[in-house]
Amino acid sequence: MGRLPKEDAMGFIEKFGPLAGRVLLALMFVPSGFSKVSNFDGTTAYIASKGLPLPPVLTVLTIVVEIGAGLALLVGLKTRWAALALAAFAVLAALFFHNFWAFPAAEQAAQSISFYKNLAITGGLLFVAAFGPGPISVDRHDLG
Predict the structure, then answer these.
(1) Average pLDDT, integer, range 95-99
(2) pTM score
(3) What does the buried/exposed string (b/e) look like for 99-127 if buried means 16 or more CB atoms within 10 Å of the residue's CB?
(4) pLDDT at 144
């Protein structure tokens, strides 16, 4: 008594799992985007320190991607495109900001973890891009 049949448990996961996954993935981007808004100058300086061109423009683009695509992913609006944008962003962030091989030995372990976490997040985002937002999303809501 009190146990769900296997089919009911899987049905629950199929219904709510994609929503939970989108929420958890969005948590990586939306708060980070808002922190960049409140620390615009610091973010711009950090981007400049990596030798990237047009740091203020890249800061704005980063904020737009993290907040815009992050919120779209969260609610399931244009979910596949949002997931692809965030996947590309995560790979670029890994390559330019967590390139552990270019850090001093004392920092390589921490940067390596961040690098591989970004790649793992990219894997989750590619799943969303491939299979869609799941049943609880704006994309799947019948507005007509």
Answers:
(1) 96
(2) 0.90
(3) ebeeeeeeeeeebeebbeebeebbebbee
(4) 43
